[in-house]
Amino acid sequence: MNSFADWLFYLEWLAVALGILNVGLLIRRSIWNYPFGIAMVTLYFVIFADARLYGDAGLQVFFLVTQIYGWSRWHKVQAQAGEVVVNWSRWPVLLAVFAGTVVLALGLGVAMDRFTDAAAPYPDAAIAMMSVTAQVLMVLRRIENWIYWIAVDCLAIWLFWMRDLAPTSGLYLVFLVMASMGLWQWIKAQRIKERRRPA
Protein backbone atom coordinates (compact mmCIF):
# COMPACT_ATOMS: atom_id res chain seq x y z
CA MET A 1 0.00 0.00 0.00
CA ASN A 2 1.51 3.27 -1.10
CA SER A 3 -1.02 5.82 0.02
CA PHE A 4 -4.11 6.58 2.02
CA ALA A 5 -6.10 6.36 -1.24
CA ASP A 6 -5.00 2.71 -1.61
CA TRP A 7 -6.27 1.96 1.88
CA LEU A 8 -9.55 3.71 1.14
CA PHE A 9 -10.14 1.58 -1.94
CA TYR A 10 -10.00 -1.63 0.10
CA LEU A 11 -11.87 -0.14 3.04
CA GLU A 12 -14.69 0.85 0.69
CA TRP A 13 -15.04 -2.72 -0.59
CA LEU A 14 -15.02 -4.03 3.00
CA ALA A 15 -17.73 -1.51 3.92
CA VAL A 16 -19.76 -2.69 0.91
CA ALA A 17 -19.59 -6.31 2.09
CA LEU A 18 -20.53 -5.35 5.64
CA GLY A 19 -23.44 -3.27 4.34
CA ILE A 20 -24.87 -6.17 2.36
CA LEU A 21 -24.66 -8.45 5.41
CA ASN A 22 -26.25 -5.74 7.58
CA VAL A 23 -29.27 -5.18 5.32
CA GLY A 24 -29.70 -8.89 4.60
CA LEU A 25 -30.07 -9.52 8.33
CA LEU A 26 -32.38 -6.50 8.72
CA ILE A 27 -34.75 -7.96 6.12
CA ARG A 28 -34.93 -11.10 8.26
CA ARG A 29 -35.53 -8.94 11.39
CA SER A 30 -32.41 -10.41 13.01
CA ILE A 31 -30.77 -8.48 15.85
CA TRP A 32 -27.42 -9.72 14.51
CA ASN A 33 -27.59 -7.06 11.79
CA TYR A 34 -26.23 -4.56 14.32
CA PRO A 35 -22.57 -5.69 14.68
CA PHE A 36 -22.18 -5.55 10.90
CA GLY A 37 -23.91 -2.16 10.79
CA ILE A 38 -21.62 -0.73 13.47
CA ALA A 39 -18.52 -1.83 11.55
CA MET A 40 -19.91 -0.51 8.25
CA VAL A 41 -20.77 2.98 9.49
CA THR A 42 -17.36 3.33 11.15
CA LEU A 43 -15.63 2.68 7.83
CA TYR A 44 -18.00 4.93 5.88
CA PHE A 45 -17.28 7.86 8.19
CA VAL A 46 -13.69 7.80 6.93
CA ILE A 47 -14.67 7.20 3.29
CA PHE A 48 -17.26 9.99 3.09
CA ALA A 49 -15.10 12.51 4.92
CA ASP A 50 -12.34 11.91 2.38
CA ALA A 51 -14.85 12.43 -0.48
CA ARG A 52 -16.02 15.76 1.08
CA LEU A 53 -19.53 14.41 1.54
CA TYR A 54 -19.82 15.95 4.99
CA GLY A 55 -23.53 15.32 5.45
CA ASP A 56 -22.99 11.62 4.82
CA ALA A 57 -19.87 11.55 7.01
CA GLY A 58 -21.71 13.16 9.92
CA LEU A 59 -24.59 10.79 9.33
CA GLN A 60 -22.32 7.85 10.15
CA VAL A 61 -21.83 9.21 13.69
CA PHE A 62 -25.61 9.34 14.12
CA PHE A 63 -25.87 5.83 12.68
CA LEU A 64 -23.28 4.53 15.14
CA VAL A 65 -25.31 5.83 18.10
CA THR A 66 -28.60 4.49 16.73
CA GLN A 67 -27.04 1.14 15.84
CA ILE A 68 -25.96 0.67 19.46
CA TYR A 69 -29.35 1.84 20.80
CA GLY A 70 -31.26 -0.22 18.22
CA TRP A 71 -29.37 -3.38 19.13
CA SER A 72 -30.45 -2.96 22.77
CA ARG A 73 -34.06 -2.08 21.88
CA TRP A 74 -34.53 -4.96 19.42
CA HIS A 75 -33.01 -7.40 21.92
CA LYS A 76 -35.61 -6.39 24.55
CA VAL A 77 -38.49 -6.74 22.08
CA GLN A 78 -37.28 -10.14 20.94
CA ALA A 79 -36.90 -11.31 24.54
CA GLN A 80 -40.48 -10.25 25.35
CA ALA A 81 -42.30 -11.30 22.15
CA GLY A 82 -40.10 -14.13 20.91
CA GLU A 83 -39.48 -12.23 17.66
CA VAL A 84 -38.87 -8.71 16.39
CA VAL A 85 -42.41 -7.38 15.87
CA VAL A 86 -42.99 -4.68 13.19
CA ASN A 87 -45.85 -2.22 12.60
CA TRP A 88 -46.95 0.74 10.47
CA SER A 89 -47.06 4.25 11.97
CA ARG A 90 -50.37 6.14 12.03
CA TRP A 91 -51.12 8.67 9.28
CA PRO A 92 -50.69 11.83 11.40
CA VAL A 93 -47.26 10.58 12.46
CA LEU A 94 -46.33 9.70 8.87
CA LEU A 95 -47.25 13.19 7.63
CA ALA A 96 -45.44 14.97 10.47
CA VAL A 97 -42.31 12.88 9.93
CA PHE A 98 -42.34 13.57 6.19
CA ALA A 99 -42.76 17.33 6.67
CA GLY A 100 -40.00 17.43 9.27
CA THR A 101 -37.66 15.51 7.00
CA VAL A 102 -38.20 17.95 4.10
CA VAL A 103 -37.65 21.04 6.29
CA LEU A 104 -34.48 19.64 7.89
CA ALA A 105 -33.07 18.53 4.52
CA LEU A 106 -33.56 22.02 3.04
CA GLY A 107 -32.04 23.65 6.11
CA LEU A 108 -28.99 21.39 6.08
CA GLY A 109 -28.56 21.88 2.34
CA VAL A 110 -28.56 25.67 2.72
CA ALA A 111 -26.07 25.48 5.60
CA MET A 112 -23.66 23.20 3.73
CA ASP A 113 -23.97 25.32 0.57
CA ARG A 114 -23.14 28.54 2.41
CA PHE A 115 -20.60 27.42 5.01
CA THR A 116 -18.69 24.43 3.60
CA ASP A 117 -16.99 23.28 0.40
CA ALA A 118 -19.45 20.38 0.15
CA ALA A 119 -19.39 18.78 -3.29
CA ALA A 120 -23.19 18.36 -3.60
CA PRO A 121 -24.86 20.10 -0.64
CA TYR A 122 -28.54 19.59 -1.47
CA PRO A 123 -28.47 15.93 -2.58
CA ASP A 124 -26.06 15.22 0.29
CA ALA A 125 -28.45 16.89 2.75
CA ALA A 126 -31.48 15.05 1.34
CA ILE A 127 -29.71 11.71 1.70
CA ALA A 128 -28.60 12.61 5.22
CA MET A 129 -32.02 13.68 6.51
CA MET A 130 -33.98 10.89 4.82
CA SER A 131 -31.46 8.43 6.25
CA VAL A 132 -31.91 9.87 9.74
CA THR A 133 -35.67 9.43 9.39
CA ALA A 134 -35.30 5.92 8.00
CA GLN A 135 -32.87 4.89 10.73
CA VAL A 136 -35.11 6.16 13.54
CA LEU A 137 -38.10 4.37 12.01
CA MET A 138 -35.95 1.22 11.66
CA VAL A 139 -34.99 1.31 15.34
CA LEU A 140 -38.69 1.77 16.20
CA ARG A 141 -39.51 -1.20 13.92
CA ARG A 142 -41.79 0.81 11.64
CA ILE A 143 -42.45 -0.72 8.23
CA GLU A 144 -42.32 2.61 6.37
CA ASN A 145 -38.60 2.89 7.13
CA TRP A 146 -38.08 0.85 3.95
CA ILE A 147 -39.89 3.46 1.84
CA TYR A 148 -37.41 6.10 3.02
CA TRP A 149 -34.50 3.76 2.34
CA ILE A 150 -35.76 3.19 -1.20
CA ALA A 151 -35.79 6.97 -1.79
CA VAL A 152 -32.31 7.30 -0.24
CA ASP A 153 -30.96 4.50 -2.41
CA CYS A 154 -32.25 6.05 -5.64
CA LEU A 155 -30.58 9.40 -4.89
CA ALA A 156 -27.40 7.86 -3.47
CA ILE A 157 -26.76 5.69 -6.54
CA TRP A 158 -26.46 8.84 -8.66
CA LEU A 159 -24.56 10.97 -6.12
CA PHE A 160 -21.90 8.42 -5.24
CA TRP A 161 -21.35 7.56 -8.90
CA MET A 162 -20.78 11.26 -9.64
CA ARG A 163 -18.26 11.45 -6.75
CA ASP A 164 -16.23 8.50 -8.16
CA LEU A 165 -17.35 6.13 -5.42
CA ALA A 166 -18.32 3.39 -7.86
CA PRO A 167 -18.32 0.47 -5.36
CA THR A 168 -20.53 2.48 -3.00
CA SER A 169 -22.84 3.46 -5.85
CA GLY A 170 -23.10 -0.23 -6.71
CA LEU A 171 -23.78 -1.03 -3.05
CA TYR A 172 -26.73 1.37 -3.06
CA LEU A 173 -28.08 -0.35 -6.17
CA VAL A 174 -27.97 -3.62 -4.23
CA PHE A 175 -29.51 -1.78 -1.25
CA LEU A 176 -32.36 -0.60 -3.51
CA VAL A 177 -33.21 -4.19 -4.41
CA MET A 178 -32.81 -5.29 -0.78
CA ALA A 179 -34.93 -2.40 0.56
CA SER A 180 -37.72 -3.41 -1.80
CA MET A 181 -37.43 -6.98 -0.49
CA GLY A 182 -37.36 -5.66 3.09
CA LEU A 183 -40.55 -3.68 2.57
CA TRP A 184 -42.31 -6.76 1.24
CA GLN A 185 -41.00 -9.07 3.99
CA TRP A 186 -41.93 -6.70 6.82
CA ILE A 187 -45.42 -6.16 5.39
CA LYS A 188 -45.83 -9.92 5.20
CA ALA A 189 -44.59 -10.37 8.79
CA GLN A 190 -47.03 -7.72 10.04
CA ARG A 191 -49.96 -9.37 8.23
CA ILE A 192 -49.07 -12.75 9.73
CA LYS A 193 -48.99 -11.15 13.19
CA GLU A 194 -52.43 -9.58 12.60
CA ARG A 195 -53.89 -12.95 11.56
CA ARG A 196 -52.58 -14.53 14.77
CA ARG A 197 -54.40 -12.00 16.98
CA PRO A 198 -57.37 -13.47 18.81
CA ALA A 199 -60.72 -12.13 17.58
What does this entry show, briefly?
This protein has helices at 4-27, 33-50, 54-81, 91-115, 121-139, 145-162, 166-196. It is an all-alpha fold and 199 residues long.
How is this structure best described in words?
It is a single chain. The protein is 82% helix and 0% strand. The protein is built from 7 helices and no strands.
Provide the descriptors you would attach to this structure in a database record.
199 residues; mainly alpha; 82% helix; globular
Could you outline the blueprint of secondary structure elements for this entry?
Blueprint: H1 4-27, H2 33-50, H3 54-81, H4 91-115, H5 121-139, H6 145-162, H7 166-196
Helix pairs in contact: 1-2, 1-7, 2-3, 3-5, 4-5, 5-6, 6-7
Q: What's the mean pLDDT score? A: 90
**What separation lies between the terminal Cα atoms?**
64 Å
State the share of residues found in helices, binned by percent: over 70%
**Assembly type of the shown chains?**
single chain
- Can you write the helix and strand succession as a string? HHHHHHH
Instruction: State the shape.
Output: globular
Unreliable stretches covering 5 or more consecutive residues: none
Radius of gyration: 17 Å
| Beta-strand percent range | under 5%
DSSP helical segment count: 7
Classification by helices and strands: mainly alpha
Largest sheet: none
Count of individual beta strands:
0
